[in-house]
Amino acid sequence: MLEYSTVFASPVAKIGIVVRQGSLIGVNFLCRDTVLKKPQDALSREVVCQLQSYFSEPAFCFDLPLNIRGTVFQRTVWGSLRGIRAGETRAYGELAAQLDTGARAVGNACSQNPLPLIIPCHRVVSVSGIGGYAGHTQGKVLERKRWLLAHEGVRIA
Q1: 51 pLDDT more than 70
Q2: Looking at residue 129, what is its pLDDT?
């Protein structure tokens, strides 16, 4: 079982934060019944503070030490996502064309994002609608993506 450095309640879900060796390595949306946990260290407190700043002001820019684990391709996609500003979106195909790859590959990399919100995979959408989120195409997970986009001023049917 994953040991969270903190678990806090946000407007969209409870969020678990994983900090190791002075870097943020994980942000996870958790079940409603997950027990809250106070930050265990200074970095966890800072992560919570910055996430709360994002929930207050969606244009907030994160500045945290990250240790992003993934394949070279995944890290390339995630690096591109960090360039999408709040209130903007990119289509999977558009991002794929920029990276000289396929839209499905971009979607797969987005679904493996270890740091949602910090790396804004919710800003990648389908040309015909909202697309998927965290490997889901319907249900509560997709509603979370819709909420995040609406929070940033983006409306998608």
Answers
A1: yes
A2: 87
